[in-house]
Amino acid sequence: MVVLAFVSYSARRNANSAQKFSSGGTTYPALLIGFLLMSEFIGTAASVGTAEAAYRVGVSAAWNVAALGIGFVLYSWLLASRFKAIGENTISGALARTYGRNVKLATSVIMIFALQIVAISTYTSGGAIVAPLFGIGRSTAICITAAAGVLYVSLGGMSSVIYTNVIHAIVKYIGVIIALVFAIHQIGGVGELQAQLPPEMLAVDTVGWAQICAWLVAGIGAVFATQYVVQAINAVPDEATAKRASFYSALLLIPFGILAAMIGMVCQILYPGIKATQSFPSLIADMQALPATIVVAGLAASLFGTISALSIGAATLVYKDFYLPISGRTGDDPASLRFIRWATIVAGLLPIPLAILSTEVLSVTFLAKSLRASLAVLVLLAFFAPRFGSPRAAMASIGLSLVGVIGWFLAGNPGGIDNAYIAVAIPILVMTVSRLLGGSNAPAKEPQSR
């Protein structure tokens, strides 16, 4: 935290206006942004949550993270250069160019909502790690980690997020490798892992292809339509660099998911019968002080990296889509900078009460991915078929997707149909019906972002 605070304080030179605070204030190389994108998606929900799922179903739980890697490969191919070319650093701003201001505001609201859901699951899993290690209550652990994470990102803005997430990514990898090496040593080697686990735990499809496909739909949708991805992509100098950065993030994501899943599998041997959510924490509790400290630092990095991305992503949407139009300011004045700093703090602290009440990790995160998958359909249509459907149909798609996906999730995914499929089906159906009824879109004239 001392290092992060120093880096964030140093990054303040790139955050001396609201525009620079949200964009990074300069351009960055592809590898740096690749580390950033990887780190933003690997929160405690991905590390602890994947280990939790692997404790139950085995290595196939790694698909949860691999889906994100596949998403970034497709993003590199289809969207990275296009987002960079239009110069928009918000999802809502990109959609507004095709569907108008009403869709822009609706997109902003649903994106903020999705980011807050991810924050809830991030704080929940982070509290599960920090609380037993420091002998404090889970609620206290959630409050402390949230406050610490929000504090440093509010200092340096997007520039701080970029630099600190490179540190986060490195520490995460070191931590998860140390944890896995210790765990495998405890059971007597990889051979014992294969010998002691039932064959289905070692199969890539034990979780079921329906679940794997749902993870792919939700993961790809989350990559295609997540606010902080667009902000990161716009921090590179050109379109070719944007494509490389996206591809680098995929190369970093997929191995991490496999490592986290293997930790959960080893914990099934070491700690049979415990709650799956306690598999990773139980392993850390058995480690000696120094390696345990490094692993905890890696998990804390997972927590803080995601907090920073979620906070600045939500704050940027509030600032650009609501504050600037209502206030009439240009974004270069001190009042705008003060607003986006406070918006970042509020966005980071707001999920704390619900995180304290939450017990699920992976399923709640998955819901947020599903909500963004609906927006991903509109993003693809906006770039590749801008005249398919209409602004009114796009607006209806967003509203119906929000109600339908959450309702389907709360109903327990009736008929075994995952809510991710509902998230994709609704906008496709609504826009297709609009097209068949004669609805066609003339790209809207949205004012340029200030």
Automatic annotation (TrEMBL):
Signal sequence span is none
Q: Which molecular function terms from Gene Ontology are attached?
A: transmembrane transporter activity
Keywords tagged on the record = Membrane, Transmembrane, Transmembrane helix, Transport
GO CC, sorted alphabetically, is:
plasma membrane
Q: Which domain of life is it from?
A: Bacteria
Mode of membrane association: Multi-pass membrane protein
**Is Cytoplasm one of the keywords UniProt gives this record?**
no
Work out whether the entry's keyword set contains Phosphoprotein: no
TM regions (residue ranges): 30-49, 61-81, 102-123, 129-154, 166-188, 208-230, 251-274, 294-319, 339-358, 364-386, 393-411, 417-437
Please give the family membership noted in the entry. Answer: Belongs to the sodium:solute symporter (SSF) (TC 2.A.21) family.
This protein is called what?
Sodium:solute symporter family protein
Query: What is the scientific name of the source organism?
Result: Sphingomonas desiccabilis
